[in-house]
Amino acid sequence: MPNKDKDELGADLETPELVKENHWYHHRHDLQAEMVFVTFEGMVKLDRRVPGDGTQWYAAHWDKGWTYFDSIFEPGDLLSSPVDNKPEVIEAAWKWFQQHAAKSLEVSGASVSETQPPRWWFRVLGAHPDREFFEIEVEANDALSAFGAAALILKDAGEEGAAEFFAAIPCPGAFALPGDSVVSLETVLDPEQADVFGLER
Question: What's phi and psi for 143, nearest 5 deg?
């Protein structure tokens, strides 16, 4: 039976029942989208199966709400029975896991983050003062933190403060730049560039 925890008002909240190692690998055909589980990386919600793979799932991560970066999980990464997809239950489940279950699981050499939210890889795009593009890959908790990490890298490289940031794109993520440097609207709409930017009629 699931364990019981208390919310801030003293109400009972179900906490997750841990499963045996590789339980969900052997029961992978029972997995469905929207199911929520405990993993060592945090609480995750199954989104959709990875095309062409018989076991892997894309999953969202819980960070005061669901975030979708197409993170991939194996069934064996799922440590618990399904958890209700309710914020108070998800928070209680993760808190309980950190305080109680993780300690016993760490004996096998696994580990769990006790305080830090999941970290992601981002490609930060921007331009130097001469308008030449740069692309910096960093690890951060979120997109805004990725800009901060990239700024420190530029600072350490002697970059002045006139550089500009355009976007922080989760990895893996497809994108295209219009060339080696910033391109104006006038250039893109120039009839002589129509074939380059797909504007031929």
Answer: -65, -40
Amino acid symbol at 68 = Y
Tokens, residue 102: 């993780």
Read off the pTM.
0.51
149-190 pLDDT tens trace:
889 888 888 887 788 999 888 766 566 777 777 778 888 888
> Which of left, alpha, beta for 52 (phi over 0: left; psi -120 to 50: alpha)?
left
Strand partners, 120: 140
Joined tokens for residue 114? 């006790």
Name the 3-class secondary structure at 75: helix
- Per-residue pLDDT of 99-115, as tens digits, reads 766 555 554 444 444 44
Q: The tokens of 14 are what?
A: 């179900």
C-alpha distances out from residue 113 to 13, 15, 93, 94, Å: 22, 18, 14, 10
Helices (H), the chain: 23-26, 87-96, 102-105, 143-156, 185-189
